[in-house]
C-alpha cells in the first residue's frame, strides 16, 4: 500500500501496520516502519511518541526503532531520557552508516539541553553540553562531523562570553566564520543556508558594526525567490530527491524564521517556525528556535 499512488494508500498502509504492532509479540521493525508512515502523513509527535513509549521494551530491541524513539524524545524535550538510551548500547553499522543518525541525535539532545541551561543562566552546564554535543561516544558508531557543528560552536562562543571568557569566545567564533560550508551528499538534507545563518551571527559577534542585514533579508525572502537554473543541476536534483517531502516544504519557513530573528522581529519569526511545524510536526530545528524565543 505505501508504494501505491492511490488516494487512500497511505492510510491503508498505516492501518495494516497498526494492526501488526497490536498483535502479541510485535516486531520492533514494524514500530519503526509505522512511525515513518506517521511522519510522512504529519501525525503529531504526541501520538507517535505515545505509541513508542508504550511499547518501549520491544522498541529497544532494534536500532531503527530506537532511532524513532530517541528523535521524538528530543523533540518533546526529554533529552535526559534520550541521552540515557544513546548511552545504553553499542549501535550496529549498516551499509553507509548506522540505522539512524546517532551522531545527530546525540548532538540534538545536548544542544537542546544546553540551550535550556543557557536560558536558565547556568552557563557552565550549558558549555559542558555544547562541547559534549560535538563528541559522540564510541558506542554510537557515529560520523565525527555532526550536522549542527556550526550552530553548536556558535553557542559554545555564547557560553564562553556569558562566563566572561571573551578570548575563548572570539576564538570559537573565528573558527565558525572561517568554516567553509559544503553540501554533504551523504546526508538526507542540505541545510547550508541555515548553517550560514549561525555563521553570520558569529560574524556579528566578532564585528558588531558589520552590515549583515542582507543575509537575513535573503533568508526571509527565500520562499519568493526562483531557483534559477538549479533545476537542471544533477547534484541539486539528487539532494531534493532525498529530502523528506514534509521537511522540504517546511524548510523555507524555517529559513524565513531565522531571517526574521536576525532582523530582530521575533513575532514574525515565531509565525514562520509555527508554520514549519504545521507542515512537518517533528521539525526539530524549528522547535529548538521556537523554544529559544
Write the layout of secondary structure elements.
Layout: H1 9-21, H2 28-40, H3 45-54, H4 56-59, H5 63-75, H6 79-86, E1 93-94, E2 97-98, H7 102-119, H8 123-133, H9 149-162, H10 166-177, H11 192-206, H12 213-220, H13 234-242, H14 245-262, H15 266-279, H16 284-292
Antiparallel strand pairs: 1-2
Helix pairs in contact: 1-2, 2-5, 3-5, 5-6, 5-7, 6-7, 7-8, 8-9, 9-10, 9-11, 10-11, 11-14, 12-14, 14-15, 15-16
Helix proportion: 55-70%
Query: Which consecutive residue ranges, at least 5 long each, have pLDDT under 50?
Result: 225-243
- Across the major sheet, the strand order is 1-2
Number of strands: 2
What is the rounded Rg? Answer: 20 Å
Strand percentage lies at under 5%
| Series of secondary-structure elements, N-terminal to C-terminal | HHHHHHEEHHHHHHHHHH
The main sheet comes to:
2 strands, antiparallel
Average pLDDT confidence is: 89
Give the overall form: globular
The N- to C-terminal Cα distance equals 41 Å
Quickly give the structural class: mainly alpha
In DSSP terms (H or I, runs of 4 or more residues), the helix count works out at 16
